[in-house]
Amino acid sequence: MFKIKEARAHCDIPCKIYDPAVIQIAALSVVRILDLINELDPSSKENQAELSRLVIEKEKQANIVKEEVRIIWGDYFKDTQIEAYPEVHSLVHSIMLQGSKCKQKIERENGESLVSLVNEFSEIFWQTKGIEIQRVLAPYPPGLEIVHPILEVANTI
Predict the structure, then answer these.
(1) What's the whole-model pTM score?
(2) In contact, 131 and 147? CB cutoff 8 Å
(3) Is 80 exceeded by the pLDDT of residue 4?
(4) pLDDT digits (tens, 9 = 90+) for 66-117
(5) Cα–Cα distance between 126 and 55 in angstroms, integer?
(6) What whole-number distance in Å separates Cα of residue 5 and Cα of residue 123?
(7) Residue 19: what are its φ and ψ, rounded to 5°?
(8) Distance between CA 93 and CA 98 in Å, rounded?
(9) Which residues pair with 134 in a beta bridge?
């Protein structure tokens, strides 16, 4: 129907503005929401509205993880990064499956596994940029370990 000789596409976000921080916050949020869900008394009618709200938010946060990982994997990882880290494909697939499991279930272990996989992805991402990382405990619930880049502080004075 159309005789298009060449198509050009662009990144979902501005080029070179990639950071797995959003993915980590969303994965931690999934765990925190799972904790809140599991703290509710299921026999209380008053908790039904809260449960519905929490489940909707858990789904949203798990979707954020999957979408943001897909964007970084699809737009940032090129041949050079993939050659250096060929395991990134199976890791991304595992994150997608674990994100779905977090949506389907309410066991905290599923969320912890998602955070662990996201940390692996974050490590690889920062390594492709030659930036050192450190693992620290998140300063908010659920207080799990996350990966942070070690960045130089610029003197702006």
Answers:
(1) 0.88
(2) no
(3) no
(4) 999 999 999 999 999 999 999 999 999 999 999 999 999 999 999 999 999 9
(5) 32
(6) 39
(7) -160, 125
(8) 9
(9) 148
